[in-house]
Design brief:
single chain; 330 residues; alpha/beta; Quinone Oxidoreductase, Chain A, domain 1; six-stranded parallel β-sheet; 25% strand; binds NADP nicotinamide-adenine-dinucleotide phosphate
Length: 330
């Protein structure tokens, strides 16, 4: 008999997440039947989307959503033999018995690279950065791009790939340590601590008086408005996320009306989800692996040890605790 631990949503979040919203419980798993695998979580991930999506996709008492890098510990399914590693969309749990193959993604071999990258740079956040930048914004050499949330899982890769494509990168992040990393190690061109800058629009204009060709928006709210106001004619904006509003209570805040500016500057503004390109993820993964091996792409992780600490790692996303990808090592 295998006992699993899992985190459940005890109460729907209301404002900033608090400890009583989630609960750690135990469950005894059934014996394996034909077609089943027994998974053991090795790395789990906490991602900002879990906050807004839990409100629409989960009922109170449900297991928190999310993927994990899992080892197939036992198998009665020849497609997933014992010893295989998979990216498993089974939620926040240490052990799982399932026969649902649609939840299990085999990823290309990483060689010497850490398996945790399967939930980070070589998983959903990495694919979001890669396809959001290259398919939505299609940056050209010499163009100026703004990325906010720039020291996070998605943002840090967006800025680096944009540099690889010959762009000038302007970035916003939320601490001196993060800004130093982006400027000194990742060589972003202009980096601002948005918590210290009084006027984000002014900062962008100082960095690029002619404005922005591209804007990869992870944050929304005031940060979106600042970037929007600095767009050049025919600029492109990729709306990736809006973490600044995920903990807002009640109705989403209504910001300034952007229509006139979008119209006058003839902007293209497109929201997207990284899942859109899932059928092509392996291609991008192989290219990203090459870039990492050649030292062209730097991957940083903030690793929380212990499944029992997963809840605080999740809450930490909204306090800016992570640099690079927030990962949980079981
Ligand atoms: N479209 C998609 O398919 C997709 C996929 C993945 C992620 N996303 C979105 O992309 C964004 C970044 O996700 P990620 O996984 O890379 O997370 P992340 O950036 O690794 O972690 C979250 C970071 O957001 C920043 N933050 C938190 N509250 C903020 C606020 N009120 N204002 C400004 N910044 C705040 C914090 O950094 P600071 O210290 O800099 O504040 C924090 O470290 C999120 O909006 C997420 O929902 C979208």
């Amino acid at each position: 008999m295998v006992k699993a631990k899992k985190w459940i949503l005890a109460h729907h979040f209301d404002g900033n997440p608090k400890d009583s919203d989630m609960k750690l419980v135990e469950e005894t798993l059934p014996e394996l039947k034909d077609g089943d695998v027994l998974l053991e979580a090795v790395y789990l991930t906490v991602d900002p989307y879990m906050r807004p999506f839990s409100a629409v996709a989960l009922k109170e008492g449900d297991t928190m959503m999310g993927t994990q890098v899992a080892l197939v510990k036992e198998s009665r399914n020849p497609k997933f033999p014992k010893g295989t590693y998979v990216d498993a969309n089974v939620g926040w749990r240490t052990h799982t018995v399932t026969s649902d193959e649609s939840l299990l993604r085999k990823f290309p071999p990483f060689g010497e690279l850490p398996l945790s990258y399967a939930v980070g740079a070589l998983g959903m956040p990495g694919m979001t950065a890669y396809y959001g930048l290259l398919e939505i914004l299609k940056p050209k050499k010499g163009e100026v791009i703004l990325v906010n949330g720039a020291a996070g899982a998605v943002g840090s890769l967006v800025g680096q790939i944009a540099k690889l494509k010959g762009c000038k990168v302007i970035a916003f992040a939320g601490s001196p340590e993060k800004c130093k990393w982006l400027k000194d190690d990742l060589k972003f061109d202009h980096v601002f601590n948005y918590k210290q800058v009084k006027d984000q629009e002014k900062a962008i204009r100082e960095a690029s008086p002619d404005g922005l060709d591209c804007f990869f928006d992870n944050v929304g709210g005031e940060s979106f408005t600042a970037g929007l106001r600095c767009m050049k004619d025919f600029g492109r904006i990729a709306v990736c996320g809006c973490i600044s509003s995920y903990n807002d209570k009640g109705e989403e805040k209504q910001g300034p009306y952007p229509n006139a500016l979008i119209n006058r500057r003839q902007l293209r503004v497109e929201g997207f989800l990284g899942w859109r390109w899932m059928a092509q993820w392996d291609e991008a993964t192989l290219e990203m692996i090459d870039w990492i091996r050649q030292g062209k792409l730097v991957v940083k992780e903030s690793v929380t040890e212990g499944f029992d600490n997963m809840r605080s790692a999740f809450y930490g996303l909204f306090k800016g605790n992570n640099i690079g990808k927030a990962v949980i090592k079981v």
